[in-house]
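seq/struct pair 1
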Amino acid sequence: MKPLAGKKKSHRRKNVRRDKEHHGAHYYLGDLLDQIDDTFKSLRLLKKHNREDYNLFSKAGVTVVNGDYNWTDNEYNAWFDFKNMPAFGACHYPTLPEDKEIEARGKAPAKFLFFKKMKRPYNVQPSNDTVFIMTAIFEREKRQGVCDVYISVDNEGEVKPLKMCQPQYLPFKKQGDGAWRMKWDWPEDLKTVAQCNGYDPYTMARRLFITTTNISMTSSSGITVRAKKKKDVATFAIDMLRTPYFFADRDKVVDDKGQTKKIFHIVRGHYRQNADGGATHVKTHFRGLRRFTWSGYQVLVSMNGKNNTDVFDFKEAAREVTEIERQGERAISSDDTGRIIEKLLDAKPSEAKADLKEVIKNA
């Protein structure tokens, strides 16, 4: 006997919580605000030790990720085209619970890392590939240790650390004196860092560079957020659908009708009903407020390529000052470069163009 046909029970779909781990586009806030604060602390320390690099990266922005970031040191997962690599990038490694254990063992964890494309650097192992200088800053008790390493990257993405020609003191066996000689070797700081982490210098340099480039470029992996505190900028990416969630506690901005302006968000494609009974198709687009105050930061929300220039669209290599002077060429300083790039990223192209003309005129 068949059961009587009754009303079907509706099964409501349960909301499945998304995994916290991400590859750069944040879906949850997590400890992101704490990581942003740590990034600004690192920038202040960099300002004391290396004003030139600070002038560039404090304006171009330092990429920050929260503690749920899914780390990778695989060069084939990188975000960029190896034949057309960006001129520079910077990131702040997230502060993790195990950092305290590292410091307790008398070691300093890597915190702030950046890379710059270089043209014909001096005393560096020759290479026909694209050459970068990577700076790794290790922090402990508000002090910084700096390690500079040169890296080459070929068109297939193969990363190769380069040795440097450095002075080395060679003591004589019988006499109590010695002599200085130039020798191709890894930087002493790199050898120390590699030994502390259980790697050889070549492997250590590769891992640091690949991780640094991957984290740095995650700021372009979703909606890009630039958070400014005084003159310093931290940048990160969020999922395209999550701007209302991330900035729910922002300072409200009211329009002339007394209504709170909606935050920058995506509007899905839909049909709008007309008064005559017809319908008009509205394409998917973005709308809403892009500039506001959030947790004490001045925030700009953008879609790279639509609202402004992507920082990784800049491709020009830096050059040694002595090389520029020897060739009698004109160049733009890191401070001027940072200021012009900042205005492009802040969607002020006319101001950036005027600054560039003035800088070139006075170069």
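seq/struct pair 2
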Amino acid sequence: MHSTILVNQILFLNFSVFSLYKNRKHADFINIETLWNEYLKAKGILNERNIPWEVIDKTIDSITKNNPFCTREIFYKATVNGIQNRYINLKMYEQYRYHTMLEKLENGKFAIYGAGLYGREAYYHFKKQGLQPECFLVTEISGNNGIDNIPIYALKEWKVNENPIIIAVLGNAQIEIIEKLKQRGIENYYIYPSCE
């Protein structure tokens, strides 16, 4: 069933593009970029952490091979736009989650993941608002036992609780931390805005 849907989607995309080429007068009724992004959404390609470029390349080759009206550039540009839109939507959603959590945040009932530059920035930001974390979390402890008498724990040593965790680290480290939190059954985490 799933492969039939995929084949039908490719056939529909091919047919639509070919029809546009043969009947240029109707080209204003269909948007190739929109069709392509709907295909990517239906396949879930834009939701994957690592974009499967081999699948995208193969599909684009299949479509553009017999359709001189379409170029690879159109499809790759649409793919990049789709990825950018997904990123913007995820960022807006993450900001909404963060600000909703802030309204409920209680003194001493949250942790900051990260004890470096961004962890300290988050700490002093919350301190200025009269909020102090119960602790700082790190992947591995490297010498420093605390900041302003607030303990630093390695995640593996920390006793899991329901309190929110503010992730104050950048880039790939965020992805690794989120995976580690999920492995421990922790879903109550938020990205500190300076680290988005």
